[in-house]
Amino acid sequence: PAAALTKLCDKFNEHKIAEESYITMFSLVADVSAHKLRYCNAGHNQPMFLKRHHEVIDFFTAGKPVCNWYDAETKYKDSSVSYEPGDILALFTDGIADMKGKRGQVYGEDGIRALLHQSESIQGIMDKVRKSLNAFKGGEDGEDDLTLILVELRK
């Protein structure tokens, strides 16, 4: 994943993309035979990893966004984590984490983390997140996209 992000960043610099333009992304490759996830984060919200025994692990790699704010020598580094069948990967956009409530409070990553503990299934988690976000924003339309991707890891 890091090599692809490094190449993309190099292209940003090579083509002199406008400075106000940038991309945040999380790139991941699953090695199902070894039960390992190799990943690289380019400035995106840090995904969360729900272990089968309900421990939530954050991917502690923020990384720089893909852009031309840095020199052309920006390099990304891969990290890895082992998984067990049944673990769930939660990827989400900043529209969820940064959502503001009726009184200006921020939903935050803690709101997502708390809901990951409350259900056994992907559908259950999705339903709880949807209800929680609707209640939090009080029926108002959000200012940003709301994207949550849940992946159950298998053999």
Q: Which strands sit side by side, in order, in the main sheet?
A: 4-3-6-7
Strand content: 15-25%
Order of helices and strands: HEEEEEEHHHE
The main sheet comes to:
4 strands, antiparallel
By secondary-structure content and strand pairing, the structural class works out as alpha+beta
**Count of extended strands:** 7
Query: What is the CA-atom radius of gyration, in angstroms?
Result: 17 Å
CA-based shape: flat
Question: Whole-Å distance between the termini?
Answer: 21 Å
- Unreliable spans are none
> Share of helix among residues?
25-40%
Q: Let me know the average pLDDT.
A: 86
Total helices: the number is 4
Description:
This protein has 155 residues and is an alpha+beta fold. Helices cover 27% and strands 22% of the residues. The protein is built from four helices and seven strands, in the order H-E-E-E-E-E-E-H-H-H-E. The strands form two sheets. It has a four-stranded antiparallel beta sheet with strand order 4-3-6-7. Strand 1 (25-31) and strand 2 form a beta hairpin. The longest helix has 16 residues, at 122-137.
Overview features:
single chain, 155 residues, alpha+beta, 4-stranded antiparallel sheet, flat
How are the elements arranged and paired?
Layout: H1 2-14, E1 25-31, E2 36-42, E3 48-50, E4 56-58, E5 79-82, E6 88-92, H2 94-97, H3 108-116, H4 122-137, E7 148-152
Antiparallel strand pairs: 1-2, 2-5, 3-4, 3-6, 6-7
In short:
By secondary structure, this protein is of the alpha+beta class. The protein is built from four helices and seven strands.
